[in-house]
Design brief:
It is built from 26 helices and 32 strands. It is α+β, with helices and mostly antiparallel strands.
Length: about 900
């Protein structure tokens, strides 16, 4: 009976151990299957083996050193000491025959704990070894930037680890010496330390000072991230006072370590104590008292002159770290006033003015195109396509499957039958129907296209919704899309998916997902596959955990009609010397990676958008073959790369201050810019917006992302900033400054004028009284040939309805404001009827005009140069020559 009881206890113990350790093992192994299925097993294995290596190395180092320290201390303390009377006698047993067992258990426990704590630092260790030089040095210590970005974090970890180990060893050693009576009281009531104890203290002190010297050496580097004072990084006080003190303390610490080691063999306590007192005095005076005195009495009375050099360091470093050093700044040159002829030749810009905001359009899509309750539109994406041989800006949204909205939420429906979303909705940004709804070029189920973009693979197995796993290729028929009274079914034939048909695999995934139905279901066959990590954002983060990915993927249609998700990836750091830190981001960022995910197959490809970034180059060395050049992305997909909205907004906010490169101007905030805020109650910043327009000096319209600036605490415009998105000029940032002596209306001023217009105000009040809610869209600023056109859409939403309708378009130019049913009507009301040219006519006219106007333009440039030099005679001669040429061209 006793044997049976023991077997039962053993069985329960094994079961408990399996439950305890089996779940983590199952998670790790099924993750490996996922990585292997996608071809990224190197990422998984390198992380796994490196974490294991760190665990064992740190555990062996900590456990071995702690055990060795304990053994040697015990041997030394046992020879000359007697058990202290004021400790419990039971300690005698533990410090006698049971000491070795106790020491081994304690050393093993500490080794495991510190070994586990080392595992998250696998990435820091890898970057430390594989660091790529930046080719730039900091201005204070002269070290390459790579030291701060790649090496300093891991060195800090080593410093913390060694300090923790020193505390453990020294604390345990002191305890042993204390318990074994190595501190005695003389007749004069003085404490007397035995010779072994004094030597041990001296040795521990030597190791402490040695480690302290290393820590102080690292503190020198941390000065470049000091956030006190007007400078981010080391200012005058840090450079002239704190840094020299730290250098001195490093040498004093090394000297103290040497003298402490000598003390072990030749005790001279007065020298040791004197050095410790000198060190403490230098530390507290040099690092706590003196910097405050210098800052208050030397720096503050003449702060600008003292900090000017260091402000220049901060400005230069921040511009470099956030990619602002390559911004091309130009003066905005005003042209002749807008006319209907000018607008006619800028139809590429006019016909791509966005009249639909994301939020109202998403509501509208949801009401008119979700078709069934279980479909859902998550977001609306901006992009551009060649539609019927014209470049058009479009807004599109994927129709995804929402399991929360299924009519019957059984396990079979959620995991075997309803496996994917279907199709998308696409419309151009400025066309509406007579009812005020967006004019859709792709709509319905299955997708119906009214343009030359066709969808041949509309199934969306991988999307933005965080859906859990599904099992495909089962006996249960997969729902494809609804078709009248009957549904259409399909079977997944994608490239990815982990096979789940074998009994062992079914058991593993049963444990992972906590559902016994995976193990017991009769619908799963040997050909069945399980798809998990289906959220695009989660999928790319899992495949490349060392990259920070954008939370807003956007959908792209290939020329073959397949759907792909584009996800921008960033390399970031908070260790770029002197660069200003941004909360939640750090102080260095690059959009280095583009992840492309097939919406049907789930395959992931990573492309290098910024191959010059040292951080991504380091990861490319660590994971060879994982990142491909951006030129290897299919040309039809490469045309849809766009600059990330969030990154540009961050850069624009920083540029508002860091366009001031003169330290004096920067210190006084003389030319500070701000992003305009909305006049609505929320007071949110205006968001950057994508548009298609012809930039000043360019021959054709292109896809850009832009935002305006106001002077600080004012509402007029100071400048506007854009970044080019098309592949041939991707990432080029331009800023156009407005003359300070001329008033240029900003968005808030235009919105105020719109609200004050009697006709518009009366109409808005009338609509509000009729049970409708007026929604004013984003006010867009459109530069056209040296002029600014302001456009704002107006939506109506019935209180009882859910569909916002575009009812009016407001256009403002100089002192004119018009509100009409369409953009064309509003423009015609201000400028007269605009004669639109077809693309062929515009191209033919451009070919005729450009050669004819070239000699006149050259004369104009020469005349402008003569006027600048004050040569009025030459200016008059050239001006008359221009007039003669114009007469000839009539």
């Amino acid at each position: 009976m006793r044997i049976v009881n023991r077997l039962i206890l053993l069985a329960f113990a094994l079961l408990g151990l399996f439950i305890l350790l089996g779940r983590p093992f199952v998670g790790v192994y099924t993750d490996y299957l996922w990585f292997h299925d996608l071809g990224f097993e190197r990422v998984f294995l390198l992380k796994f083996w490196l974490q294991s290596l760190l665990f064992f190395v740190v555990a062996a180092f900590v456990g071995g050193l702690f055990y060795l320290n304990g053994r040697l201390v015990h041997q030394s303390a046992s020879k000359g000491g007697a058990f202290a009377d004021f400790f419990d006698p039971r300690f005698r047993v533990w410090l006698g025959e049971k000491f070795r067992l106790f020491l081994k258990v304690l050393a093993l426990f500490l080794a495991i704990m510190l070994g586990l704590s080392a595992m998250p630092f696998w990435e820091d260790a890898l970057l430390f070894v594989k660091a790529t030089p930046f080719g730039k040095t900091d201005p204070l210590l002269g070290l390459d930037i790579s030291f701060y970005v790649f090496r300093l974090p891991f060195l800090r970890y080593l410093a913390n680890l060694t300090f923790a180990l020193w505390v453990l060893c020294a604390g345990f050693g002191l305890f042993i010496f204390l318990v074994l009576g190595h501190i005695k009281t003389s007749y004069e009531k003085k404490l007397i330390l035995t010779t072994p104890f004094r030597r041990y203290l001296a040795l521990m002190l030597a190791l402490f000072f040695l480690r302290l010297a290393f820590d102080l050496w690292l503190d020198r580097a941390d000065l470049l991230f000091d956030e006190r004072g007007v400078v981010f990084g080391a200012g005058f006080t840090e450079a002239k006072v704190v840094l020299p003190v730290l250098n001195a303390l490093v040498f004093v610490s090394l000297a103290a370590a040497v003298l402490s080691a000598i003390f072990v063999f030749r005790p001279r306590k007065e020298i040791l104590f004197g050095l410790i007192i000198a060190y403490a005095g230098l530390y507290f005076v040099g690092l706590n008292f003196l910097p405050g005195v210098v800052h208050r009495y030397i720096v503050q009375p003449n702060e600008l002159e003292r900090e000017k050099k260091y402000l220049a360091y901060e400005i230069a470093a921040t511009r470099e770290a956030f990619g602002l050093d390559k911004v091309d700044e130009q003066e905005f040159k005003f042209g002749p006033p807008l006319t209907k002829e000018i607008l006619a030749r800028n139809q590429d810009t006019i016909k791509n003015i966005r009249l639909w905001d994301h939020e109202p359009l998403l509501d509208t899509f949801s009401q008119i195109q979700e078709i069934r309750t279980y479909y859902k539109f998550i977001s609306v994406d901006n992009d551009r396509y060649q539609i019927n041989n014209e470049l058009r800006q479009v807004m599109l949204s994927a129709r995804e499957l929402s399991y929360e909205d299924l009519p019957s939420r059984s396990w079979i429906n959620e995991r075997l039958v309803y496996t994917h979303g279907y199709g998308l909705t696409l419309g151009v940004v400025n066309e509406v129907t007579e009812e005020g709804l967006p004019k859709l070029l792709i709509k319905d189920i299955p997708p119906v296209s009214e343009c030359d973009i066709k969808i041949t693979q509309p199934a969306i197995y991988f999307g933005e919704i965080s859906n859990e796993y599904v099992i495909v290729r089962t006996k249960a028929r997969e729902f494809d899309y609804p078709a009248g009274e009957k549904n259409v079914y399909t079977s997944y034939n994608g490239k990815t998916g982990v096979k789940v048909g074998s009994p062992l695999r079914r058991l593993l995934f049963t444990m992972r997902f906590g559902s016994s139905k995976i193990l017991l279901s009769g619908d799963i066959t040997s050909e069945s596959k399980i798809l998990y990590y289906r959220s695009v954002a989660e999928r790319v983060r899992k495949a490349a955990p060392f990259i920070i990915f954008d939370t807003d993927p956007y959908l792209v249609i290939s020329k073959e009609g397949h759907l792909f998700w584009f996800v921008d990836g960033y390399t970031v750091s908070n260790r770029y010397p002197y660069a200003r830190r941004v909360e939640g981001v750090g102080n260095y960022v690059r959009n280095s990676v583009l992840a492309v995910v097939d919406a049907y197959n789930g395959t992931i490809s990573f492309y290098l958008k910024d191959p010059h970034d040292p951080i991504i180059r380091t990861y490319a060395k660590i994971f060879p073959g994982m990142f491909q050049p951006i030129n290897e992305l299919a040309p039809d997909l490469r045309k849809h790369i766009r600059y990330p909205h969030k990154l540009f907004f961050l850069q624009a906010r920083l540029f508002g201050a860091y366009h001031m490169e003169d330290p004096r101007v920067f210190y006084n905030r003389e030319d500070l810019w701000e992003i305009p805020r909305s006049l609505k109650g929320d007071g949110r910043y205006m968001k950057p917006y994508y548009t298609i327009m012809k930039l000043p000096g360019e021959k054709r319209a292109e896809f850009i992302l832009m935002i305006p600036f106001n002077p600080a605490k004012k509402h007029n415009l100071a400048a506007w900033m854009c970044v080019r998105c098309d592949p041939e000029n991707y990432g080029q940032m331009l800023v156009y400054r407005f003359p300070k002596q001329k008033l240029v209306y900003g968005p808030q001023q235009i919105e105020s004028r719109i609200n004050q217009d009697p006709e518009i105000s009366r109409q808005l009040s009338l609509w509000d009284q009729r049970g409708s809610r007026v929604i004013l869209g984003t006010l867009l600023i459109i530069p056209i040939e040296g002029n600014l056109l302001y456009v704002q859409p107006l939506y109506l939403k019935a209180e009882a309805g859910q569909i916002p309708e575009l009812k009016r378009v407001i256009v403002a130019y100089e002192n004119e404001i018009r509100m009409e049913r369409t953009l064309d009507e509003a423009l015609n009301a201000i400028f007269g009827e605009i004669k639109k040219k077809t693309p062929a006519q515009a191209e033919r006219l451009e070919k005729q005009l450009v050669p004819a106007l070239k000699p006149i333009f050259e004369l104009y440039l020469q005349a402008e140069e003569a006027l600048k030099k004050g040569n009025l005679e030459e200016f008059g001669r050239l001006w008359r020559k221009m007039g003669e040429l114009l007469e000839e061209k009539k």
